[in-house]
Amino acid sequence: MQRRDLLLMLIVAACGGAALPAWRRAKAAEFEVTKTDVEWRAALTPAQYQVLRHEATERPGSSPLLHEHRKGVFVCAGCELPLFRSETKFESGTGWPSFWRPMEGAVGENVDRSLGMERTEVHCRRCGGHLGHVFKDGPPPTGLRYCMNGVALKFISEES
User: What is the DSSP string of the chain?
Assistant: First the structure.
């Protein structure tokens, strides 16, 4: 763990969630699924809580969903909103589950200027949970790579 990550975790813990990104605090009332910080902690695993509620990133290669190839749907681990169909998943070689398109109306996006660069952050449109980032280096037909934290997702198989 880097010193920056440790400091951020300590600040978030000390502030009781007040250190959440300003866009998430300001828009919390706009999400269909809202919970208190205590309720989110009770509903999620520690890793899910850090990623979904505090924009942490799981270690590359650590998610079992990276190698999930069955037919089905990837849903938000926070509210179970369907986010990605398995047909849009591809092997990006990055160490995180990657998709070339989310389901219609499933995700929201925000500019992320952390880490000294500008990226596009992707969140669940229903609960605001941080999912990952989208990049313009994906395969056809969209040319996009939705690079998602596997811990922010659950997989529901459509196979019998």
Answer: --HHHHHHHHHHHHHTTTTS-HHHHHHGGGSSS---HHHHHHHS-HHHHHHHHH---PPTT--GGGG--SSEEEEETTT--EEEEGGGEE--SSSS-EES-PPTT-EEEEEE-GGGS-EEEEEETTT--EEEEEES---TTT--EEEE-GGGEEEEE---
